[in-house]
Amino acid sequence: MSGISPRSVQRQHARRNGEEGAGSGRAGPARARGDRIALGYLTDHVGYVVRRAQLAIFKDFIETMEPVAIRPAQYSVLIVIDQNPGLTQAELSRALAIKRANLVGMLNELERRKLARRVASPSDRRSHALHLTANGRRMLARFHRRALEHERRATRALDPGERRLLLDLLGRVARSLG
Amino acid sequence: MSGISPRSVQRQHARRNGEEGAGSGRAGPARARGDRIALGYLTDHVGYVVRRAQLAIFKDFIETMEPVAIRPAQYSVLIVIDQNPGLTQAELSRALAIKRANLVGMLNELERRKLARRVASPSDRRSHALHLTANGRRMLARFHRRALEHERRATRALDPGERRLLLDLLGRVARSLG
DNA sequence: TATTGTTATACTCTATAACTATA
DNA sequence: TATAGTTATAGAGTATAACAATA
User: Which one of B49, B144, B171 has the shortest CB-CB distance to A170?
Assistant: First the structure.
C-alpha cells in the first residue's frame, strides 16, 4: 500500500460549509457561485487518474490521426501485422486482447483500403495468414510520423527518464493484474 | 522527446524469417507454430501502454465492486457529490467530464437506490442541488473499503514512492494535454 | 472434441441535437 | 441570448453465442 488508506480518506472527507444530513431533505445552495469542485481522494485512485490520462491521450491521438483516418486499434493492428507477417487472426486477437469476432470488421476495412491482406494458409486451411501490402508498409511509415508527433505532445511534460519510468510503472501494474 | 524516434522505429522493424513483399501475394506460414507474437514498438507508445493498464485496472475494479453493483463512473459521481454537497448536475458534469445528458440516467439510478438525491435549488430554479442521502454516505464508506482493496491489488507491484510517482506522472501528462 | 473465422446480436459508453423552463 | 436538465438517438467499442469448415 501507499499513501491511501481508510484513515486518509476520512481525513480528506471535508464537510463543506456546514452542510449536514442532506438525506433529511435540507436544500439550499451548498456552495457559493464560482467555487471550484473538489475531486477529493478521487485523484488518489490509480484507476481514475489512469482513465483521465488515457482519455486525454486518445483524444490527441485521434485528432492527430484523423487526416489519415486511422483509429488507435487500427494502428495497433497494423503494427503487429508488420512485426509478425503471416500471423493468424487468432494470434493477433490474443496479442492485442481484441476479440476474434471484432477483428473481422477491422480486417475487412484494412483490406478494403489495400493496407493489409488475408492470405490462405496452406498448412492450416482454417486460418488466414495476415500481411501488410507494399502500400500498407508505405502508409504505416506515414502513420508512424504522425504518431510520433502525437507522442511528443502527449509526453511533453516529461523528460526522457520520466517517460521511460511511466512506461515501466504502467507495464508493471498491467502485468501484475494480467 | 524521449527514446522514441523514426530512427529507432526503423531499427526495431525486424523482418522476420525472410518474409518479403507480401503485397505481391506470397503465402506460406511466416512463423513457426508456438512463436510468441511481438508487439514491437507498440509497447513504446504511451497511449497503448496506458490503455492496456487502464483496461486491466478497470477489470479488477469492476470485479471487486460487482457485489455492491457500483461501476467506476458511479463511484466517481458519489465521491464528488459527497465532497461537494449541493453542487449542480452541470458542475458535476464539468468536474468529471461526463456529458450532462449522460448524467441523467446515472442520477436516476442513484436516486432509485436511495444513494443520492436531487433537491430543488431555490436560488436558480433551473438547477438541482445534489446530495448524498444518509444511506448514501453509509454505503459510500462500504464502497471505499472495497475500492481500497482493489487499489492495493492494482498497485501491488509498486512501492509507495513509485505509486505516488505514477499518479504524478499521469497527472502531468493529462494536464499538459488538458 | 477443439479451434478458426464468421455472423448476428446485445450491452455499455460516449456524443449530438433539440426541447422546456428558466436566467 | 445563454444555461440547466432532459429526451431521443446514434455511434463507438466490446462481449457472447452459435455456425461451418477444418484440425
Answer: B49
